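Appendix C: a fully annotated inverse folding record. The material below is reproduced so that readers can follow the format used throughout the book. The structure is listed first as tokens, followed by the designed sequence.
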């Protein structure tokens, strides 16, 4: 009976994926307008994404417009943006790993049964129920880890950008020219994003701080939004803007130093754990014969 239920659930999930891929639900008007406003025709320094594969089209694109996919993508929008991962790729990875976890235990049990080692129905059923949710959540956890690393890299580049802008302002350059000089001084994806944000703000007739604020909201980098707010309050006076930029650069460097020290301390603590376990095993190895002799004598 349990095998029939498991087979029916697996067949139903596969049929749901096929039907959802053949006829996905149309996107909402709000999401379509948000995508139209967010996407830009040119991304400076960015690499053109690879064409989606068959797995991405079947597993990812079909779930992108579903309510569950919208809920997942809404929470991970900034992480997807900063890592350059498309929503369809992430959903395809989540669904694919979940299906692997769902089918791993039944397939393993079937192979063992063919080899003459029957394991029953309970183990594959509970294994599928346990591994499928874990497999669905794991890509999101890995995405958050990659996004955190990218944000640390961006903050490091952003502090260098602020230093260059401060030097340009001290040399008598205007705010716009100093920002352009700072964004053009470095290479890599972080400086490309800064150049793109400044260019979009210039083409839209906005202040450069508005472009940096919008970039900070897209990447979930609070330092960009804080800098835009403080610079907007400082106005267009070079001295006040230069002091705000210098203070923000110092704050970012201090935060990076604190995070590096915390990571080093955590690594040192993890290195001491194997030594502690080794000492515990050595003590047990020495004490066990004495305890066994006492218990045997009693």
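Designed amino acids, in order:
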């Amino acid at each position: 009976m349990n095998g029939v239920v498991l087979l029916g659930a697996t067949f139903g999930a596969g049929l749901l994926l096929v039907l959802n891929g053949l006829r996905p639900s149309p996107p909402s008007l709000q999401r379509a307008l948000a995508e139209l406003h967010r996407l830009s025709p040119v991304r400076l320094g960015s690499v053109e994404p690879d064409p989606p594969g068959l797995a991405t089209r079947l597993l990812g694109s079909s779930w992108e417009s579903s309510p569950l996919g919208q809920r997942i993508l809404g929470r991970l929008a900034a992480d997807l943006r900063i890592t350059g991962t498309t929503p369809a790729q992430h959903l395809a990875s989540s669904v694919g790993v979940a299906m692997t976890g769902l089918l791993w235990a039944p397939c393993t049990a079937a192979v063992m049964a063919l080899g003459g080692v029957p394991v029953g129905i309970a183990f594959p059923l509970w294994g599928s129920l346990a591994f499928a949710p874990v497999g669905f959540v794991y890509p999101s956890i890995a995405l958050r880890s990659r996004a955190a690393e990218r944000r640390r890299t961006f903050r490091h580049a952003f502090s260098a950008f602020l230093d260059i802008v401060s030097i340009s302002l001290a040399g008598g350059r205007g705010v716009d020219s100093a920002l352009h000089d700072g964004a053009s001084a470095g290479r890599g994806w972080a400086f490309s994003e800064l150049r793109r944000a400044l260019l979009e703000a210039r083409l839209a007739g906005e202040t450069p701080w508005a472009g940096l604020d919008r970039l900070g909201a897209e990447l979930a980098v609070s330092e960009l939004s804080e800098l835009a707010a403080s610079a907007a309050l400082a106005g267009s006076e070079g001295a006040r803007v230069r002091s705000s930029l210098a203070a923000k650069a110092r704050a970012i460097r201090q935060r990076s130093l604190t995070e590096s020290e915390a990571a080093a301390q955590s690594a040192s603590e993890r290195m001491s754990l194997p030594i502690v376990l080794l000492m515990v095993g050595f003590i047990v190895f020495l004490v066990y014969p004495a305890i066994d002799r006492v218990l045997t004598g009693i």
